[in-house]
Predict the 3D structure of the following.
Amino acid sequence: MDLQEQLKKLFPDHEPSNEPEETVIENHELFIQAAPMICKYEKRKGKATTIIEGYEGSDEDFKILAKEIKTKLSVGGTFKDGAIIIQGDYRDKIMKILQEKGFKTKRVGG
């Protein structure tokens, strides 16, 4: 018994429509800024961390950017107090990702 037959038994009066559903795909543009984003290296509790600061757009855009960076690098991290904190020293890779998106970056520390 397939899904369509089960649905007909549950909802005998329902008639399926053959019209295609409209889906609205909304591209989200990130805010491009004048000042460079700062990409710095710190050790916290003995572990290496990369911190990205200096984004001038909205926090929601910065969170989207944080998620994208974490996904591309397959690492853990968080968004806290207007900064993205990534586990590990990935400054060069992060700077390359940001530059491909059109951001200016500045390397700080070490």
